[in-house]
Amino acid sequence: MIQPSNIEVDREKGNFHYPTSKYAFDAGVGLSDDVIKYISDVKKEQDWILDFRLKAHSIFQKKPMPTHWASKDLHNINFDVIRYYLAQGQQPSRTWDDVPDDIKNTFERLGIPEQERKFLAGVEAQFDSEAAYSRMKEDLEKEGVIFVGSTEGLRDYPEIFKKWFGKVIPSSDNKFSALNSAVFSGGSFIYVPPGVKLAQPLQAYFRINAENFGQFERTLIIADEGSEITYMEGCTAPKFETSTLHSAVVELVALKGAKIQYITVQNWSNNVFNLVTKRAMAEEEAEVRWIDCNIGSRLTMKYPGVVLRGRKARGEVLSIALANEGQHQDTGAKMVHAASETSSNVIAKSVSIGQGRSSYRGLVQIPGHLKHCKNNTECDALLINNDSQTDTYPAISIQGDDNSVQHEASVSKVSAEQIFYMQQRGLNQSEAMSLYVNGFVNDLIREFPMEYSVELKRLIDLEMEGSVG
Amino acid sequence: MNSIIPSDLKLNAQFTSPKFFNSFLNKRSFEPGWLVDLRKDAWNKFKKLPENKTKDERWRFSPRSRLGHSKFGLMAESKNKLTLNNEFSEELYFETLEHTILNNPDLLKDFQSLTGPDLGSEETFLLCRCLSESGFVLKTEKGVKAQNSLICNHIAPSNNESLFQTNVLFIEPFSELTIIEYFDSNDKISPGMLSNLNHIILNEGAKLNRVLIQRLNNNSTFKHLEKIELQKDAQFNSISLHLGSRQSRVESNGVILGNGAHFNNFSLSLGHNEQLFDQRTIQHHIAPNGRSNLLFKNALLDKSKSVFSGLIKVEPGAQNTDSFQTNRNLLLSNDAEADSLPGLEILANEVKCSHGATTSKIDDQELFYLQSRGITKKLSEKLIVLGFFEEIIGQIKSDTIIQELRNEVSNFFNS
Fold it and tell me: Could you report the predicted ipTM of this complex, rounded to two decimals?
């Protein structure tokens, strides 16, 4: 048998911790207008951004928790003990040598391979609130690609980013998008000029280090007409005694004929509330693809969406969720068709292990004045143990006699015969189980870029350890 | 989307005033004390219901105001609202609720512990509990196999009046029965509201086939709540055909309480004008080795709308469950709307569960084929809809009922 991976990745949970006492900027705990003013002040933001933040804060206070349909676990988030802003310094380091040793060590531990750093187009690794390391290859800059953090994006390129900032996901979309809009920092702002096709993916790595620290990054990607971009993000957090909150907002804009592929591998530690709002706008003939993989966190609520605004636009969500003991992966997809001849595809696979719970929540909307719209949704769930749980809650609203949708979901368990067969061939039970789960998600994993699919297989192997017997 | 409409119930309806309720109780002073207590209890609970100010998932996509009680504020006289083909025998009791309250009230003793489907219409459930004067009671002895189908004709009120009914079906072990229920309106035009509450209890090995045909007039409101409890090896087969009413809400909760029980729930709805079909179902597996199958087919013309919300819930102990849920919607006009909320909540791993939902129009090629044979478009549509429904109608054992259902669908297109 071929060993799944020989990449050196030390993923022992709870090992990523390092001292947090020396942050240069710290907004303290709790949320108030003063905290928001402090953040805005440190970032030297223009007045309109501060106004945007303060308005979002008042929306956040008014909005109820979405617990009429969502997990009651949300009430366990104590917004008053969270740190909303922490940073080492304001300027992202420009070369790898400038990055402090302890941070480098953390990255080393996380296993961003040396080779990756060399040939990846640009690395924007977010360490707490500000990007600790950011570098872009010169040829990318030559092509006119802008790849900066949210602060620089709004400060240096307002003519490009202001137009779309907060437009795909308004602050009032939900309680957590309002929270993010009030206290956002970090994240990536990317602009790809017309016709530019990026051969290599852009990458960011997010990580929460300080205890009780909420991470609120903000990402906005604009792909101009006919351009193509693949963006990858990875997430990790060390283990703390108390829960942390990650609440990001990601907005994608694919203009006419553009293609955006957004890949997430989420491996937060098991006490992170991961409440993320992700939505894309696809104009005529544009294509947006979310590839979403959720392995860690205590509760993930994430439903990447595509608003298909232009004729022949296409949206796709491929999602893998792995819910282990004590975890709830509440993921899904939203497809809002707003133009004729648009099509969308959702494939979601989830695995529940131990008392883990995975849920699929979907929305498909096609109004009656549209013609020839299509949607296909497939959800497959795999239950490993007796007490594992899985739920599916799609919502499909269709009008008009010229559109078609299909939705299918199935739930199955591990086939005893197949496990027996593999054991007969000399694999032990947990290896066999791991192989089975990898096989279950394999057709989706193939869609991931090489480095990620290898890493993912390894992560699944680790999650499956000790899950049987 | 989600309706945030405060309950209009407490506003205009005459039957919701305490004065009305007191006079209602006075009128019914002949009833046994426990029944009066039951009505009072339901009344107090009804009065304490919170206003529906927050969003409620159980009413998602539903234009809730259309299903309110306020337009039908007067309560209808319950006389002659229900007729039965009474089969008097020692082993089979099939009588109206009025008759039962007067002559055999003890048959209703178990009634107190029965609960509703609990899928959103608590108001209607509690009102049925306090105000039902009509309905029927069916009770069998052990091992009764009735040759002929039982038939029940329900008549919905008119003149903006409201009627509340409660039906109780106790099927004792190893009995087998078929019941056909018709729902018609008092007259052809004038609006009325019928709220119908069913409690169906199937004991070990009992089998009940139920055919429900709803043909209320096009201005009426129909509410149908039912809870079906299935003990060991019991079987319930339901086939419903919804043609009438301007708006209807059906809530059906099937609970597999005993090992190896079977629950089949099939429904056809054919909508035109501005008809609304709001369907909420749950297949709740508590015991192991249960089977359930649900198929809801909706064909929608004009501006009609259907909302299907179904849930399969498999509890941790319900291993070896096979449960399926399918919703198929056929949109025959540009203004028709079909909303689907198929759901799964699975807490056991030895299960086979799936759900599927599709919404589509008539296949152009099929239509062209029929038209190229000289069949008009209207007739082609009728044939295709008949074919669409045949999957369910064809499962009925009795040829006369099959023919009757086919005729109902045909007549719908002919009129």
Answer: 0.83
